Amino acid sequence: MTPEQRAESLQQARSTRSEPDIRVLRIGRFSRRFSTRGLLSAAGLGTLTVLLVLLALCLGDRPLSAQQVLEALLPEADRLDRMVVWQWRAPRALGAAIFGAFLGISGAVFQALTRNSLGSPDVIGLTTGAYSGVLVVLVAGGTGTLALASGAVVGGLLTALTVYLLAYRNGLQGFRLIVVGIAVGAMLTALNTWFSVSSDLSVALRAAVWGAGTLATVQWSSLLVAAGIGAVFLLLVPPIARGLRQLALGEDTAQMTGARPERVKILAVIAGIGLVAAVTAISGPIPFIALAAPHIARRLRRAGFFDPLGIAAVGAVLLTGADLLAQHAWPQAVLPVGVVAVLIGGAYLLWVLFRERGRG
């Protein structure tokens, strides 16, 4: 057995001791570890997401029962019911679930990369950078979904490059990256405000509504574009998942177990920014989902592993639930989902703070 194989076996043994419900599936030379608790929690969260999406399809100015919603999906359904469900409500409901999953995984990628629970893209300025890219496209006259998505990706990548160069000092430390990211994000926020107040009134109004984070404008065309872009970056997550788990043990240990830290970091940044940009281009910046989803997933699983499936399910539940509250909690007003996400995220962080304080 090579030194790398011995180190990997030691890592797996330690992981298995920390999670008693770990199981290993072996088929020939293929082996995969999985957690029974993780699978059960992911299945439960997936079921909850489906129920929330179904509820979103039922509620509205024209209330429908679950049976009517299911019938409306059939070609021979009532024309009005089919239009209400399929054209008006379904893109927004599915968009909330898909975008929540994207944000959750992106937050988990950056938290694993920085080895810090505050290392989500909205905290370290990457979401703001993606927003800046979209604003530049809007000011330049661009309106198409693909143009906005391209602006979001470019803005996010340029922001990440800036933060990386400013934070790099004989290596990249997670805490320094977060501090620099907060500073860069603050400057970009000021720049975004200047863009908004100096542009045409129509552009400023659109940027103001969109900048609050909203799913009201999601249509099938924009949803398919965003989902396709996000899926491309999502393909980078499985190959780097193991490397992110190894990086959690430190770069030296990660190298001993066969990981290539710099390659993992680059791919992780690209994947995380791409997922955020796919969401930001359509719905605007939606805060706290990327920060809270990995925390909640780890508490449900009671482990610190990078678990994309469970984290995606938590993100989908959070954003779908937040959008339901934004639409129906206040009968006289429909709030931007970003406002509700801030309220939920703030309440969650306060709960965590008081919980940890009680332990102390």
Task: Name some characteristics of this structure.
360 residues; mainly alpha; ABC transporter involved in vitamin B12 uptake, BtuC; 15 helices; 2 strands; Iron chelate uptake ABC transporter family permease subunit; membrane; transmembrane; ABC_BtuC-like
Provide an overview of this structure:
The N terminus is likely disordered. This protein has a single domain, classed as ABC transporter involved in vitamin B12 uptake, BtuC. Helix 4 packs parallel to helix 9 and helix 4 crosses helix 14. The longest helix has 36 residues. The chain is globular. The protein is mainly alpha-helical and 360 residues long. The protein has a two-stranded antiparallel sheet. Strand 1 and strand 2 form a beta hairpin. Belongs to the binding-protein-dependent transport system permease family. FecCD subfamily. Pfam families: FecCD (PF01032). InterPro entries: ABC_BtuC-like, ABC_transptr_permease_BtuC. This is Iron chelate uptake ABC transporter family permease subunit.
Give a short summary of the structure:
With 360 residues, this protein is mainly α.
> What is the chain-wise order of helices and strands?
HEEHHHHHHHHHHHHHH
What number of structural domains do the residues give?
1
Q: Main β-sheet: number of strands, strand sense, barrel status?
A: 2 strands, antiparallel
Mean pLDDT over the full residue set: 81
Instruction: Describe the strand arrangement of the main beta sheet, using strand numbers.
Output: 1-2
Q: How is the quaternary structure best described?
A: single chain
| Poorly predicted residue ranges | 1-20
Based on CA atoms alone, the radius of gyration comes out at 21 Å
Helix content: over 70%
Please provide the count of β strands: 2
| CATH-level-4 superfamily name | ABC transporter involved in vitamin B12 uptake, BtuC
Tally the helices. 15
What gap, in angstroms, lies between the N and C termini? 45 Å
Helix- and strand-based class?
Answer: mainly alpha
CATH architecture: Orthogonal Bundle
Query: Remind me, CATH topology?
Result: ABC transporter involved in vitamin B12 uptake, BtuC
CATH class designation: Mainly Alpha
